[in-house]
Amino acid sequence: MAAAGKTHATRWGVVNVVVVLYALFPVWWIAALSFKDPGTLTDGNYIPRDWTLENYRGIFQTSEFTRALINSIGIALIATVIAVILGTMAAYAVARLRFPGKQVLIGMSLLIAMFPPISLVSPLFNIERIIGIFDTWPGLIIPYMTFSLPLAIYTLSAFFREIPWDLEKAAKVDGASPAQAFRLVIVPLAAPGVFTTAILVFIFCWNDFLFAISLTSTESARTVPAAIAFFTGSSQFQQPTGSIAAAAVVITVPIIIFVLLFQRRIVAGLTSGAVKG
Amino acid sequence: MSTMAEPTKDKARAGKALSAGARQERRLGWLLCAPAVLVMVAVTAYPIGYAVYLSLQRYDLRFPARAEFVGLNNYGAVLTSPFWWDAFWVTLFVTAVSVAVELVLGMGLAMVMHRTLFLRGTVRTAVLIPYGIVTVVAAFSWQYAWTPELGYLAELLPSGEAPLTEQWPALWLIILAEVWKTTPFMALLLLAGLALVPEETLKAAMVDGATPWQRFTKVMVPLMKPAILVALLFRTLDAFRIFDNIYVLTAGAHGTGSLSILGYDNLFTALNLGIGSAISVLIFICVGIIAFTFVKLFGAAAPGAEVKR
Amino acid sequence: MAEIVLEKVTKRYPDGSLAVRDVDLDIADGEFVILVGPSGCGKSTTLNMIAGLEDITEGTLRIGGRVVNDLAPKERDVAMVFQSYALYPHMSVRENMGFPLRLAKVDKATVDSKVEEAARVLDLSEFLDRKPANLSGGQRQRVAMGRAIVRDPKAFLMDEPLSNLDAKLRVQMRTQISRLQRRLGTTTVYVTHDQTEAMTLGDRVVVMRQGLVQQVGTPAELYGMPRNLFVAGFIGSPAMNFLNASLSAGNLRTPLGDLPLDDGARRALEQRKAPREVILGLRPEAFEDASLARDTGGPVITATVDVLESLGSDAYVYFSAEGGPVTSAELEELAMDSGLRDTGAGTDQQIVARLDAATRAREGAPVELRVDMGKAHVFDPSTGSNLTHPES
Predict the structure, then answer these.
(1) In whole angstroms, what is the distance from residue A232 CA to residue B145 CA?
(2) How far, in Å, CA of B11 to CA of B6, rounded?
(3) Any idea where the ABC transporter domain is (chain C) (predicted)?
(4) Chains in contact with B via at least 3 Cβ–Cβ pairs below 8 Å
(5) Is the entire prediction scored with pTM above 0.90?
(6) Which tens digit of pLDDT belongs to each residue from B88-135?
(7) Chains that touch A (3 or more CB pairs under 8 A)
(8) Which of A29, A119, A260 sits opposite B51 (nearest CB)?
(9) Helix (H, G, I), strand (E, B), or coil: what is residue B21?
(10) Count of A–C CB contacts within 8 Å?
(11) Contacts of B303 in chain A (CB under 8 A)
(12) Residue B64 — φ and ψ, nearest 5°?
């Protein structure tokens, strides 16, 4: 019995290790590259023989990267805040109120969730040039928040539906004013959902590449994923592999931190809208 | 309760009460949704209309003054061009293969996450990393891995092979990168579906003499069907707009360009806004057809349906 | 502490439906009143209107002599216990129970001492620092009670507070609530759909149906003198037996045979100009095993026992009477509410009799039953009203 349990455990252990390796190997490889000096870059070793921070020093000395990092953080944060605020309002209405047009709203956000971004690139490119926000922060913030709104509305309305609204009544009978009931009871209950949604939306904005290369032309609004892609062409003879790897690691770090800290919430958020609950 | 005979006087007053209470709720609902709706309309509906308008023009960005209305000529040019059809088949192939592989792998992964008792947290965390990582970063990692002299994976191949420079190997590598990145998402959606299968139903099937495979095909899959369809729909539409991975891995060279790459090239390399817009509109129509097919074929399983109740 | 007075209170929903119609109710200070009825009868709506969670469309509501129609819940000083308990999941038991006091800006020391006092009374002292998620169903229920009693409010409002507990715990908590209410002497309005709960807990019981009050009275009054078919069928377990009957010369012709009415009933029926076709209602204890009966009055019928349920103290005997089942809107609704329609009981009328445990009735064998016609009720099938009731 004990032996059977043990082989069972071993089997699961092996499976789990395989899964973890599968998930982490490409990440490990690019991290290893980022710590190699140019001389050993091509040695094919999984672990750098001579650890160096040269690549990191290099990218942080160029405004090409630092500026892009600031752009990435700023644009993603602002887009996230706006999308979550607008999404919270709409999701509250979807989850709690009865009004005609609700189905239209849901259908529309579903449609946008499925929208091919490339279809918007050409018109947005032209519109943004005409109204003068091409290659600016707003030029990226606006499409980002639009495309993350469906995600925000979906996730948030699923969370809001879970809140037992009896509690609002209970608070009122317990002597709370409507404002107190909202602040002391509803907000603490809704906060985790809003926070989770913010993480998902941030990851979405942080990840984008197509808009970032299409709607920017200079350093002034180019985000890191786009900047990395342009590192490649900067020198014809020496591939900037080390720099790209280092930059890649830098923008991966926040994602890994989110995942490590909020694993449970992210899973809950990703799956909330997808399954009837 | 709700159907009771009552004097007409009451009914008239009730009619007024209805409009007061419901109107307030309705107004609040609209007010709360208005900003989101305005943004979505302004940033998607209007531009897609504008794209349709642009696609009917001859519009070369190098000669904006020579723009003129040409009707459906751009569409004719696109649809008779081999570039469009090559990109179309590449996109379809990559979409079909990667979604199919993801479904199988994702189901396996979901089972592992569902059944495993220890290291569960670790596995879930690890699996979220491919989901969260920036696609471009992952694509570069894969590109370096397959680059001769640089990558660990290229070393496994006979020397002199550069898989990313040949159409078929490159396509398979693109699919690999896509599968790696998105299988976890698929697995998480399926995991949520698995959680809906009651443990007791499976036990009942076991008592009724079903083999593990039968329990899977006859009990779990039917019960998970809504989750599977939603996952498939999301992933199919997502894969159909594949861009980042191809852009980094091959830049669309050697017959590996997807429709999104084609649209991008026409706009930013050929600087042809008219043709680029026509491609945009055509891709939009393709996505519409895919979504429509899913919803028509599987009806209630469409993601929008869950909200109705 | 205060009395609660409802005058012609009506609730009409925006879609025009009437949830509560012209409810008149006088609840004395310290009284324990139960609102009972099938789902959708308006009992919860009435409670919510008293709490201030729903607007009163028409009528007046007074708590402690003050009209509170337009006051927000917080200004009414009433406490409510919800069916779902509505405990705040992000607060510990201590914080949950202290919440109303903190909202009322009571100083911290007083809050602590009141919470601890309530926790002691409810046997919750050791759980004060737990979150609701880590409590059992019974403990959660007690926390909800605790949150209500710490404030020492004018009234307790309870909305099916026990229906989420399992049967045994429900009986225990029932006694505890009753004891607590008596000790605190706080006016209490308690909503339930369970007539047993209503009968055991309340000083007075209000039976509601379709938004209308059917009868208000002590449990004994409701049981002994139901005003109409609905109350008669709703109160009592097992329920009253109903039989189609026709009146002729002071006799009732029923599927069980001819049953003579007693004098009081005959007079009442004459006075009321009773129709020819009526419904006869007999509670299970109106039957006696004729071989055991001490008094010899009353008709004797013979029935074949279908099922015998021996409970030790009593024995229930089930037998069928010929002829179709009694039909009336009231009974229909009761059957629907209790799910009895789905039992597939066939077309014959099922009758249940409660006999002394010493009965020698056997399944499949005939038994002689004496009917105590002094306990018989006669109803008008068209209006449902009890024709033998002294005042209806």
Answers:
(1) 16
(2) 7
(3) 4-235
(4) A, C
(5) no
(6) 999 999 999 999 999 999 998 888 888 777 777 788 888 888 888 888
(7) B, C
(8) A119
(9) helix
(10) 56
(11) 110, 273-274
(12) -60, -25
